[in-house]
Amino acid sequence: HLRVPPTLLRVRPLTCAETRRGDRRVVHSLGDGTVHVSAARHDATFGFSAVFDAGASQEAVFEGSGMRQLVELATDGFSCTIFAFGQTGSGKTYTLMGPLGQSEARPAAPALLGLMQRSFACLLEHSRSRGPGLALSASYLEIYNEQVRDLLSPGPPCALSLRWSKTHGFYVENQLRVDFESLEAIVDLLLQAPLQLSIPAGSRRRRTSAHALNGHSSRSHALLTIYIRSRAPSACPSKQGTLCFVDLAGSERVKDTGSTGELSVEANNINRSLLALGHCISLLAKPQGKRTHIPYRDSKLTRLLARSLGGSGVTLMVACISPSSRCLSETLSTLHYASRARRVTTRP
Ligand code: ADP
Ligand code: MG
């Protein structure tokens, strides 16, 4: 069956800094899944599966996002991908993981936990309620400057090769997969030096550099994949589903961030892969008969996401925006990008 991927919009509150300098709110939620952008020369309304505005709690976002159903589908063997996109500082990491100062490894207060931790908890509940349980493992990769790196492997980051095979499609060679059985273990894996596992922390290793928009700006795309294998009785084939969380690097243009030198190379790579992703999404959005070749090979990001974008997976898109007048042009571009994504149909 055809299924339109749910596209959610989250509008974060104005930050203290934005309020202090007198930024205006130019995005208003109208209820009913629509938002209205009103500024001097712009006046537009956009529709989404759901809109979460500044007052929405992390719990409300989780409960209203359909994440529970996605966890269930992944448990039943589907490939599910959740990706957060938007300008740097728009709340992607907050939505996925909560308010992390990325330099310090401190878990967020329970009420502020993001979609990831809530999904893990949900998954582990499923695992416990099923007779033979589920075998769970995780991999954590980043794409930085068009290089795929393993965030779980010890030692200095080294680039892994992205290969293609007829049976597996695109896959990363030699990526580390770590088994886990508890919420603590997977959260530690994600956030801080693991207690039980002798491997370094994933998120701390993620490439960040400070620039004008966000002190902890993420300069890489991060992909956390949970592999869920049902321990079926030996007679039945076992199913394997995946739940993949993609925290995309910021989409801002080079001139807004004042990036130069190495940073502008990063920004160009980020923009190139987001452009490739947008291109694939808009081609996939065309009616089936009018579809041409989808250029997944244009970037590492689109290769890694090919399966979930291309129709055999279930995708949940979370667009994040700032309500501030100063972010207007990036906000509009995120809203247009998200509107295109809404027209993609997939056949899980
Ligand atoms: P991104 O990952 O898109 O670059 P972050 O998630 O790091 O952005 O968010 C930028 C800042 O805004 C952080 O200080 C974060 O804590 C804050 N923030 C983001 N979304 C919210 C929200 N819904 N409520 C409160 N603070 C938020
Ligand atoms: Mg981030």
TrEMBL record:
ATP binds at residues 86-93. Residues 4-344 form the Kinesin motor domain. One of its GO terms (biological process) is mitotic spindle organization. GO terms for cellular component: microtubule; microtubule associated complex. It is found in: Cytoplasm, Cytoskeleton. Keywords: ATP-binding, Cytoplasm, Cytoskeleton, Microtubule, Motor protein, Nucleotide-binding. SMART domains: KISc. Its main location: cytoplasm. Pfam families: Kinesin. Belongs to the TRAFAC class myosin-kinesin ATPase superfamily. Kinesin family. This is Kinesin-like protein. The lineage of its organism: Eukaryota, Metazoa, Chordata, Craniata, Vertebrata. The gene is Kif12.
